[in-house]
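User: Teach me something about this protein's shape.
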Amino acid sequence: METIRNFCIIAHIDHGKSTLADRFLELTGALSTREMVEQVLDSHELEREKGITIKAHTVTLFYQARDGRTYTLNLIDTPGHVDFSYEVSRALAACEGAVLVVDATQGIEAQTVANTYLALEHDLEIIPVVNKIDLPGAEPGHVAEQLQNWLGFRRDEILFVSAKQGTHVPELLERIVQVIPPPQGDPAAPLQALIFDAWYDSYRGVVVMVRVFHGALRVGDRVRVMSTGLDYEVHGLGIRTPYDRPREALGPGEVGFVIAGIKALSEVRIGDTITRADRPAPAPLPGFRPAKPMVFASFYPIGDTQYDGLRNALEKLRLIDASVTFQPEYSEALGHGFRMGFLGFLHMEIVRERLRRDLGVEVLVAAPSVRYRVRQRGGAVLEIDTPSQLPPPEQVEALEEPYMKVFILTPTVYIGPVLQLCEEYRGEQRNIEYPTPDRVMITYEMPLAELMSDFYDRLKSVSRGYASMDYEWVGYRPSDLVRLDVLINGQPVEAFSMIVHRSQAYHRGRAVVERLRAVIPRHLFEVVLQASIGKRVIARERIPPLRKDVLAKCYGGDVTRKKKLLERQKEGKKRLKRIGQVDVPPEAFLAVLRRSN
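Assistant: First, the predicted structure itself:
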């Protein structure tokens, strides 16, 4: 254990985390020059295209230090986006140290601060690094001052590197060996191994990435996943360099993969503990909690895709990503589909792209929503994510919606527009601090439903792209929420119903009926569109009837003949209005469903 170093790289999106990992692979000889490509650990097409790390990756490096010893460096590359912060926290739990990377041209961003505090919560040794010092717009001295004033680092602790050119990266490897402590653990104690990553392999089943804290794991052992109580036999162990290297055993402090014949990702949980079935540990490692979906949206098959094809594709996708949840759903206009849960908006976009690219499935995504909590008069608590699940008003004591704590980092020149924007989106100000004279950190608590709309786009707009945002879960709070129904000729249409704040109900209702009026075709009878809260109508639009030219066949003759035809038409219109059904095209549903706010 004395020569083992477990560490991860944490940074804001696009601050050079994956490029720095490439230099580590190159300098330690893990890959030859011929095998090297840009962003080796970001192997998926979407990761390269978007320039972000979606899935955590682990690689074991062997480094010949200047003291003559060979060290085993277990590098855990973490995602940078806030949607995958749970995966970041599990990766940090498997480490003793972290390399904090900050872009010399952009400085400290919101997720830089969030990830630093997350690392401090896990009591990790942090090495601050200012990256991209080779760029023309770099201000390494200014960024170093931010690290000193804001996060409390000393000037002599900060390293200035260029991951792209390799400048001072060898010094960083030496700093990792010297500063990050070796792992601690008891080889004779019962086995405790933390699951911090898992993926599905077509030939080997689920492959689990673990960090062993106590005891030893050997091929042939009978192991147990502590949260589910399921037992498995270990068929294979190994480390990634980044190629798979088999091992017979993994001891305390070591990081490696386990193959145990696990059939589906749903059988394991990130953050869970593996122990021996014949000699179980008294308690699991602390900190495990299942990842909960935050955003919900409906997926419907379109084009050549059929319902069964979408269901099969989602089953395959769940083998790759266990955090995706789905259940069947039916829409009046769009047919059969699935109600799906995601960790966030980027996660939803990634899933949709994977369905299209990897599995060849085209889907239509309805407007995302959040999960509300209903406190009923009898004391029962109900969680709902669609308006149809809302009980009658007389049974509801209180409605609660999820709130998030939002951290916004922006240049001080844009503080006015940013504060105005947050107030507009029902934000509650909690704190304002100035880490440096030219930058301000604004903290708000805001409903998740507001963040789901175009808040981030408007934040970038009012700050000319300079503001960055991070958010974390706060909890549920009572709110003045109402169910907004849309009626067509007096009949409520379930697919158009939504849960909104009372202060926004009129504007949302007015916008929906105006949009429907533009897309529903005219009929031979009058169509009345209404938006209502309970029995109270708050917005109304009318589609006038389409008059059929019944006199077209009259080329002259007595006027009484024309009057007789017009009277017959008038009677027919009354009958149509009484028994007629309105044809609502799918475009009308899409116009409402795709509306962000």
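Now, about its shape. Confidence is low (pLDDT under 50) at residues 39-44, 46-53. Residues 559-579 form the longest helix (21 residues). If you'd like, I can walk through any region in more detail.
User: That's plenty for now, thanks!
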